[in-house]
Amino acid sequence: MNKAKKILIAFSLVLLVFSLAATAGHLLEDYQARKHMGELTRQPEDSPIGSGTGGGATAPPLSDEKVKEDEPVMLSKLQELYRRNPDIVGWLKIEDTVIDYPVMQNPQDGEYYLSHDFDKKESKHGLPFLDVHCQIDDGDILLIHGHYIKNGMMFADLMKYKEERFYQEHPTFQFSTLYETADYEIVAVILSKVYRKAEKIFKYYQVEKVGTPAEFDSYIQNVKQLALYDTGVTARYGDKLVVLSTCEYSTENGRLAVIARKRQ
Length: 264
Fold this sequence. Notes:
Elements: H1 3-40, H2 76-84, E1 88-93, E2 100-104, E3 129-130, E4 141-145, H3 164-169, E5 172-177, E6 181-193, H4 213-226, E7 241-247, E8 254-262
Parallel strand pairs: 4-7
Antiparallel strand pairs: 1-2, 1-5, 3-4, 5-6, 6-8, 7-8
């Protein structure tokens, strides 16, 4: 065997070792992320989150002080997690998907949970988080971002909504704030993209520009025009919306969004 061939074999072996090490690293990180989420999603029997009841069971307040009659009481499961990380603003669950996650919002850094887990450790998976322009207890539209992770975690399962049949079997999802559990019925599933600021085109993610009845109606009309299929559900000014947004790779800077209204 000549020297050149030996060098080539040695180089190939080095590349193989690095490739295996990288793969093992990704698998370990995925395993740790799944384990971490499994710990968060273990629900006590009386928890309203993930129970499928859609109820509003509550727990004692965070302090030992007596609660006033009109004072809201935090949901039991979220109370426990709030003590652990007060950046939690709610919980999102979609049946028959892996989407069963806390929703976060860091007051100092709007994109913090793109790269951090619930315990504020760096993570490529991140967590679903509320857009910086939204307040959980105010506004008509709550925009929630989440990564599309190739291993199926985070918001990857939103891609199932490209198929109308999946929508027909899952026309609603559950989103809970710290104080209330609610069902949301899907208005539309759309494909869009992140546009340049100067482009004068409908941008579903600019929820901060939707405040008046006319602006709300225009938002819904534009969403309906982009819809992959007709859900038969619409929304009117005064309805509360949740928009779930993730990356979609059929076009550059593509996005898939699921728009839903709070069920009355």
